[in-house]
Design brief:
binds zinc ion, 36% helix, binds 5-S-methyl-1-O-phosphono-5-thio-D-ribulose, single chain, L-fuculose-1-phosphate Aldolase, 204 residues, 9 strands, two-stranded antiparallel ribbon
């Protein structure tokens, strides 16, 4: 994919996430794989609802900026970790929604979503009659250490879903293309909102 196309997809995704309230302040980061070794990713500290192509830059697979003067997302290594582990990934989305923040601050283990129609957006067959356990990791400002924890988790659970939550921080979701990743993010956020709502008003 060309840089221009990737930047356009990232700008559009940022607007959508902002419209849905998932990237308050300068939260969130977004990337698209450009080829075997290059990733287009948001620069650090930009508002994701007001991105232009100038807010997108290129890093290599190890997270090094192609332009050494440019500062990519603080969490670039988490994007690199996903592309490295799941080579079919074409786009990665990270947002801070109210639902993923509140639920992960309270739940200790993975967040189990079962019986939702929108589970069809996740791997596991075209049925709602399934469950997805979304991993929750402790937040850590040491991003290489956080990525090591993820690698240990993925080693132990090779069938982990294409997403995880960092406690009290936000969610990462990925897919083969930006559309695919966005579909999964929207599905996951909807189910998390339902989960939160049910906890506040338990079904009789
Ligand atoms: C608004 S603070 C949020 C950041 O600490 C971080 O979690 C985040 O999502 C955005 O960081 P960024 O470096 O702009 O990609
Ligand atoms: Zn974040």
């Amino acid at each position: 994919m060309s840089f221009e196309d990737a930047a356009g997809a990232i700008v559009a995704a940022g607007r959508r996430m902002d419209a849905l309230g998932w990237v308050p302040a300068t939260a969130g980061n977004i990337s698209v794989r450009l080829g075997q070794d290059d990733i287009a990713i948001t620069r650090s500290g930009r508002h994701k609802g007001a991105l232009t192509a100038a807010d997108v830059m290129v890093v290599d697979a190890a997270g090094q900026a192609r332009d050494p003067g440019a500062r990519p997302s603080y969490e670039t290594l988490l994007h690199c970790g996903i592309y490295r582990r799941f080579p079919d990934t074409g786009a990665v989305l990270h947002g801070h929604s109210l639902a993923n923040t509140v639920l992960s601050r309270r739940d200790r283990g993975p967040i189990r979503l079962a019986g939702y129609e929108l589970l069809k957006a996740f791997p596991g067959g075209p049925t709602h009659d399934t469950a997805v356990a979304v991993p929750v990791l402790d937040n850590d400002q040491d991003i290489p250490r956080l990525q090591s924890a993820l690698d240990r988790l993925w080693d132990a659970t090779p069938d982990a879903p294409p997403g995880y939550i960092i406690r009290g921080h936000g969610v990462y979701v990925w897919g083969a293309s930006m559309d695919h990743a966005m579909t999964r993010l929207e599905a996951l956020e909807f189910m998390l909102r339902c989960h939160l709502e049910e906890e506040r008003r338990p079904t009789p």
